[in-house]
Amino acid sequence: MAMTVYSSTTTPNPKSSCFIVPSQNLCTVRCGIKVVEVLLSFVAFILEEVVNSCISCTALYFFEFVSCTAFLFTLLLLILLSTTLHTRVGITCWPMLDFVYTGFIALLFFIASVTFATDNSNTTMERSAVVFGFMATVAFISDFSWFLKSRGFPFKKDGKQESSNGGPTAVEAPPETAKLNTPANGAE
After folding, report:
1. Which of 134, 33, 135, 142 lies closest to 78 in space, CA to CA?
2. Which of 58, 60, 38 is closest to 48 using CA atoms?
3. What DSSP element (H or E) covers 116?
4. Which class for 2: exposed (0-12), middle (13-18), buried (19 or more C-beta within 10 A)?
5. In terms of Cα–Cα distance, which of 36, 52, 53, 35 is closest to 132?
6. Helix or strand or coil: residue 43?
7. Are 83 and 100 spatial neighbours (Cβ–Cβ below 8 Å)?
8. Which of 118, 103, 6 is nearest to 62 (CA)?
9. Which helix (H) or strand (E) segment is 70 a member of?
10. Helix (H, G, I), strand (E, B) or coil at 123
11. Running DSSP on this structure, what letter comes out for residue 55?
12. pLDDT, tens digit (0-9, with 9 covering 90-100), for 51-82
């Protein structure tokens, strides 16, 4: 008898899969953009590593650092945000971290790509690495822009974030002032 009452409302946990996209921290579009960021930064890093010799290696080394860092940390961020592992890390401000990280890497990738484009030996591998560096920069900028469009600025002055669905935020109801034990006829 009890099984018939509870069987229609009790369901297994639908979030038991390994990947949880979309989630509160990562929507499907941004997950796809992050995968593209990982791939483009990885290709830029590999193309830079294939360069045999350099005349002035400072720009090459800076580009290597930025592309490798972008690849590894974006891959880590993607894994953390698309699984349940982000709950075990102890960080509670994932939107702020993601926002700052994406903007910072976009800026670094742009600077590294411009620097490497202006100071290289003009080989095919170097030009290809620069192209993929600029493509990765565009991917990081689009991720940053999509974050702003979909979630808003994560650092609100009043400490409250906008709602993620774009609707108005809930306003707290005033406390109830009516007495609980009043007689039915209104006399005290």
Report:
1. 33
2. 60
3. helix 94-118
4. exposed
5. 36
6. helix
7. no
8. 118
9. helix 58-82
10. coil
11. S
12. 988 887 899 999 999 999 999 999 999 999 88
Distance CA(34)–CA(93), nearest Å, equals 19
**86: exposed, middle or buried (Cβ count in 10 Å: 0-12, 13-18, 19+):** buried
30 contact partners, CB below 8 Å, separation of at least 6: 143, 146, 147, 150
What residue type is 80 in one-letter code? L
| Among the listed residues 30, 59, 18, 46, the one whose alpha carbon sits nearest the alpha carbon of residue 143 | 30
Distance CA 18, CA 8 (A): 26
How far apart CA 94 and CA 179 sit, in angstroms, is: 44
State which H helix or E strand residue 86 sits in: helix 86-89
Token pair in block for residue 82: 């698309």
pLDDT single digits (tens) 109-144:
999 999 999 998 889 999 999 999 999 999 999 999
What single-letter DSSP state applies at residue 109? H
Instruction: Give the whole-angstrom CA distance, residue 97 versus residue 129.
Output: 28
Return d(Cα 75, Cα 81) in angstroms, integer.
10
Q: Which residue has the tokens 């080394």?
A: 61
